[in-house]
Structures are given as structure tokens and as C-alpha cells.
Amino acid sequence: MTAHTSKDPLHGVTLEMQVNALVARYGWNELSKIIKINCFKNDPSVKSSLKFLRRTPWARAEVEALYLDSLSDDATEEPDVLDVNPWANSRITKS
User: Which of 18, 34, 44, 79 lies 20 to 30 Å (CA to CA) from residue 90?
Assistant: First the structure.
């Protein structure tokens, strides 16, 4: 039996995971400037943000869109990392 694979990039990603990733990337101050909602501005916490976002569809959509944009930004940065030769610092010398 084959496993079901979803093409939805948010499949398996909880709202809490999205908020934590955005806070780690931008911080509360920058996040409140990008998405102008009070739960990011006044005494921000993951718990209060989740409570608000679960009740407010438009705000949740904003967070999901920013999270997806941050994923696409990470994907464009990866090719630079791949240019590094992993064998450059190897202890094995060629003869």
C-alpha cells in the first residue's frame, strides 16, 4: 500500500508550528509590522496569538500566506548552500 502524499504545503503543519517559525524568523516586533494585528503588538505570546488566529479567519490567512512566503524564500536560498563542496575538508587525500 502506498502512502498518501498531499500537494498542500501546509499539510501536517499546525498553526502553532507556523507561528513559532515566523517568530523565530522575524521576531515579534517585525512580525507585528508585517501583519498588523494586536496579538503580535501588545504583550505577544504564542498562546494568545493562537487563540486569536483560530477565531479570526482573515488573520489566520495572513499568517499562513506569510509562512508560505517564508518557505519559498528559504527554497531560493538553498542553492547557494549547495555550491559548497562537502569533501573539501576531508581527511582523505588523493594520491
Answer: 79
Give the sign of the dihedral formed by CA 41, CA 22, CA 72, CA 65: negative
Condensed to tens digits (0 to 9), the pLDDT of residues 40-72 reads 999 999 999 999 999 999 999 999 999 999 988
In terms of C-beta distances under 8 Å and separation of at least 24 residues, what long-range contacts does 19-27 make, across chains too? 19/46, 19/49, 19/50, 19/53, 19/63, 20/46, 21/67, 21/70, 22/63, 22/66, 22/67, 22/70, 25/70
Overall residue count recorded for the chain in this entry: 95
Answer whether 9's CB lies under 8 Å from 71's CB: yes
Q: Closest Cα to residue 13, out of 67, 58, 83, 89? A: 67
Segments in the chain forming alpha helices (H): 15-34, 38-41, 46-55, 57-82
Q: What per-residue confidence (pLDDT) applies to 83?
A: 57
Could you give the CA distance from residue 52 to residue 47 in angstroms, rounded to a whole number?
9
